[in-house]
Amino acid sequence: MAWDFQTEPEFEAKLEWMRSFVRNEIMPLETLDDQWREPGGWDRFAAITAPLKEEVKRQGLWAAHLPPDMGGLGFGQVKLGLMHEILGACAYAPAIFGNQAPDSGNAELLAVGGTPEQKAQWMQPLLDGKFRSCFSMTEPGAGADPTRLTTRAELDGDEWVINGHKWFSSNASIAELLIVMCRTGDPAEVGPYKAFSMILVPRHTPGVNILRDVPTMSHPDHRTGEPGGHAEILYENVRVPKDNIVGGYEAGLGQGFALAQKRLGPGRIHHAMRWLGQSQRAFDMLCERALTRHVSGGVLSDKQMIQDWIAESYAEMQAARLLTLQAAWKMDQLHAAGRHYSDARTEIAVIKFWGAKALYNVIDRAIQIHGSLGYTTDLPLEAMYRNARAARIYDGPDEVHKVTVARQMLKRYKESEVPTEHVPTRRRAAIEKFADYLDLAALNS
């Protein structure tokens, strides 16, 4: 079956509108970052962005990640990927289009796994942008191996009692809802991937103790309670109803990993396409500088080393784009056939580490060609560079995804004591195969 990444002309027109809207209406907000941190700053930000969100809704592009019967627009992963490529150019853009992480992934999670009551209470307000949510899974001691998660939920009558320590729970300090991955069974009895469940915890539930938002390389001066933070949380005897397990008690028990995969697969597509939007922006700056900066009797664009940077950047970006769209296309095909996204695990793993590498490389070259200017905050490159480093860690470190790809590739092969391409062995087999046509005496002389 041929790959097909084309969309209808009407959608292409929407993409063109998005490019103009993001460039002219949203990107200028970046220059006012310091304003939002002043008293009342985020209220002013909300006032500025509210009419922008309304315009997105008028264009029919709000919360495009869910099917129509769940409150979304029914776009497949290819269309969503093309949208996220545009939105990735500016950190503010996804929220203004109603599909920012982690809320979009959490809404998708509730859409595919939640009960009707859970969808009404939590998913629809998320789609409407009425509050923020958090996916609370990562723990200080678990790293890239989620089977080592230790946060436990024990049933006490009709309530779950949750105890554990999480961190990098994005947006927890400003969220209304936390989706908490908990150990609800004994791995020795049910297996490591059936021992975990997701439980819905309102943030203001007694025992939810948000210790701090952890400052990062991306935001070293982040203050707890600002948007975009990654919280460290202690869950201490947190009690929530038995049916707060995603999917309900009967259907949701032990489904934590299955639900996580449904959430993370599309999320990685969207991350990778947003990285392309960032890469393109850095590439544009690189090429502009190459044509403008004069050194050693000519412009930088005349230098072979700079031409190499441009060619390498373009090739890496194009490879990342095609890999990501092919993965998105395959996910659309799987969805149409009623099959699970796990059948695209290799394609998803490839785009995660390759896209992160391309993003980092292009931004690095753009900084280098700008010299000291690129290193300053007078250009967005230094912030893009810091953010890009995180891409190799979140949603699983590069190394884990490379292991996934290698294992899937190796399944296609079997060991052979004599190499399959061993010429003497192949020659003997060919002589036997074509013996009736060959002069054996001549061949063996």
Detailed description of the structure:
With 445 residues, this protein is α+β, with helices and mostly antiparallel strands. It has four domains: 9-100, Acyl-CoA dehydrogenase/oxidase, N-terminal domain (Butyryl-Coa Dehydrogenase, subunit A, domain 1, Orthogonal Bundle); 133-254, Beta Barrel (Butyryl-CoA Dehydrogenase, subunit A, domain 2), CATH 2.40.110.10; 270-410, Butyryl-CoA Dehydrogenase, subunit A, domain 3; 414-445, no CATH class. It is built from 17 helices and nine strands. The protein has a four-stranded antiparallel beta sheet with strand order 2-3-7-6, with no helix packed on it. Strand 8 and strand 9 form a beta hairpin. Helix 4 packs across helix 10 (256-292) and helix 10 runs parallel beside helix 12 (345-370). It starts with 8 loop residues before the first helix and ends with a helix. The mean pLDDT is 92.
Offer a quick outline of the entry.
With 445 residues, this protein is an alpha+beta fold.
What labels describe this entry?
single chain; 445 residues; alpha+beta; Butyryl-Coa Dehydrogenase, subunit A, domain 1; Butyryl-CoA Dehydrogenase, subunit A, domain 2; Butyryl-CoA Dehydrogenase, subunit A, domain 3; 4 domains; 4-stranded antiparallel sheet; 3-stranded mixed sheet; 17 helices; 51% helix
